Amino acid sequence: MNLPNKLTVFRIILIPVFILLLVFNWPWGQLSVAGSVIPLQQLIAAVVFIVASLTDLLDGKIARKQHLVTNFGKFADPLADKMLVMTAFIFLVSLGKVPAWVAAIIICRELAVTGLRLLIVEQDGQVMAAAMPGKIKTTTQMLAIVFLLLNDIFFAGIHFPIGAVLLYICLFFTVYSGADYFIQNRNVFHDTND
């Protein structure tokens, strides 16, 4: 079990912690930050989410730099990412911060692209690398989740809906990158007998 894989396992372990922070109504009170009132449990959940997201950034960089790419990492790393993001969006829907239809599109796209990646690996033995639109999608997803958990930002008494803006940017890149992956890899759906 190398360091990148340990980071991936740690990220998976953080998912139930994230869930426990949001599933119960903890009597921890609220915190006022820059004019925004944030339930303390959401603040702690945001910190856990940030830590988990940073392990995603680190494990990939370390694995590539030190040539520590393993089959476990190829399987568990993207799975951990999807589990973390899908869990966050489901809870943001339950908190009334994300429309259910937006979360449904994001979750369906993640599942569809994961299936496509499996087909490509089965046919070509190659792992489909993330293209730039997919990287933008992931970055805006992570940032949107954090800002939505933190109830956005207030500055001089004015509310800036950064989380909502990032959410719809993320939605655009979710659809665009998903369509792009399927268009670029449409040949995996052609049977060799055709």
Task: Walk me through the structure.
By secondary structure, the protein is mostly helical. It contains six helices and four strands. The protein has helices at residues 3-23, 40-65, 71-94, 100-124, 132-149, 162-184; strands at residues 30-33, 36-39, 153-155, 158-160. The strands form two sheets. A two-stranded antiparallel sheet has the order 1-2. Strands 3-4 form a two-stranded antiparallel sheet. Helix 1 (3-23) runs antiparallel to helix 2 (40-65), helix 3 (71-94) packs antiparallel against helix 4 (100-124) and helix 5 packs antiparallel against helix 6 (162-184). The longest helix has 26 residues, at 40-65. The chain starts with a helix and ends in a 10-residue tail after the last helix. The mean pLDDT is 87.
Produce a short descriptive summary.
The protein is mainly α. The chain has helices at residues 3-23, 40-65, 71-94, 100-124, 132-149, 162-184; strands spanning 30-33, 36-39, 153-155, 158-160.
